[in-house]
Structures are given as structure tokens and as C-alpha cells.
Amino acid sequence: MQLRSLVHRIRQPRSPSANLRYSEVKICEGETVFAAILYDLDGTIADTDPVHFIAWQDVLREFGVEIDETIYKQRMSGRTNPPIIAEFLPQLTSAEGEALGDRKEARFRELAEHLQPIAGFRELIDWGKQHSLKQALVTNAPRENARFMLKLLKLDQVFDRVILADDLGIGKPDPAPYNHALMEFGLNPNQAIAFEDSPSGVRSAVAAGISTIGITSTQTPETLQGLGVRFAIADFTAPELWALLQ
To answer: Whose CA, among 12, 42, 77, 187, lies 20 to 30 Å from 224?
Structure first.
């Protein structure tokens, strides 16, 4: 299914009964049980950042701008393209910046054909389905990249909602993408958990009031913990994650 049609399908109005079903708070030993899992895409579901880093190196080099991994992790990872381009190439017009962003993403897609989901991700998806949890993708990725990645990873039929910053007109670190996901499911923040790898993504989820688990594909555990994650893990096989879920 094309992402555009997928997004159209999932944005159809929900019936009142559906809202009530999504809004139910399950209680176990006096604690709220999670009703939804919200996932970032880049760096969380798949380790895309090394590919994005190379793509940015390639396009910025055309302008004599060199970046290293530290610059990428601290100033670029998880952000949308317009503020990145405005910071590194302020001389470009809006149209020139948009064209550069399109070239960068096309380069990313050329380099990304080998990517696979991070270890344990498919098992978590299956676990969520078995427990009737709602699952959503919440991403700053441009539409074409999101569509490409979902198809590449064979995830285009997996999520109940796909929330794109492009559709909202505002991306992470603003909490709007996560607030929108909660609204779509009719849930409160304490009924969901989020998985994020980047500072901007963690700030977004935490600001939305969602319990957030960090994925250390791009940042150290200490960095993510300093931003407010519940804990940080290398991948979805981590024992502490499954202890939380079980």
C-alpha cells in the first residue's frame, strides 16, 4: 500500500465506539497498563543514521562544508531538513534549500537498500499485536523516505497510524507529533510508551508526557537519560524492556 493512501485511510474519522475502545484504561495491581506503543523511525526502528550522515556529507561537500560524526550527532540527527539547511547553508533561498533537501533524501534512498530493522523490533511488534495494543509510527522523515523505509523493511501494513511531521507542519522536538498520535488513539500520555534515539525525538516525546525509552543507536545512554528517558537500551531484545512489558 502506498504511504499516501495509508495515511488517508488512517485519518478517516473514528466512530465513538472506537474512541471508547482505545480510551479504556486497563488496571493491573493499581497501575495503568500501556495501551499503545509509539515508534520513531530513523535510528529507532532501523539504524539509518550512518546512511543519513554519508548523504549529508555528500551534499554539503558541494558547498565546501565538511561535517564529522560529532557534528552530525549533536546538530543534525533527528531534525527536519529545513532547520539543518538554514543552519549550515544560510545563504540558500527557500526554494534552493528545498531542492537541496530533496537531493539529500534521494541520495539517502540510494544508499539505504541494505537496511534491516533493529534486533528484536519485529518481536515487539508481534507482542503488541498479541496484546491488542495500538501501534503508531511518529516520524520527522519526509514522506518519500517514510514510504521507502516502510516498504523496504516490510512494515507498510504494520502500523495503526503513521504520523508525519510533513502533514502536521511542525516536527520534533516540538511535542505536536506525539500529541497528535495520542489524539488519534484517544489516549492520555500515561497510556503510551515511546521509543526514540535522538535528542530532538526524546524531547518531543517527553514534552508530550509520554514514558520514553531511548535507543542508543546515535547517542550514549547518559545523553538520553539526561534528556528524560525512562532507560536506554541498545535494541529491542534488552531484558529490561521485556521486564517492563511483562
So the answer is: 187
pLDDT tens-place values along the chain, 246 residues long? 433 333 333 333 333 333 333 334 343 434 557 899 999 999 999 999 999 999 999 999 999 999 999 999 899 988 889 999 999 999 999 999 999 999 999 999 999 999 999 999 999 999 999 999 999 999 999 999 999 999 999 999 999 999 999 999 999 999 999 999 999 999 999 999 999 999 999 999 999 999 999 999 989 999 999 999 999 999 999 999 999 998
Candidates 42, 47, 49, 160; catalytic one? 42
Of 40, 47, 49, 197, the catalytic one is: 40
| Whole-angstrom distance, CA of residue 198 vs CA of residue 218 | 7
Query: How far is Cα 235 from Cα 228, in angstroms, rounded to an integer?
Result: 18
Residue with cell 512489558: 245
| Parallel/antiparallel/unpaired status of strands 31-33 and 26-28 | antiparallel
CA 171 to each of CA 43, 82, 203, 205, 207: distance values in angstroms, whole numbers, following the listed order: 16, 11, 11, 11, 13
Distance between CA 161 and CA 174 in Å, rounded? 19
Peptide bond into 221 cis (omega under 30): no
**Does the annotation mark 42 as catalytic?**
yes
Distance CA 212, CA 195 (A): 6
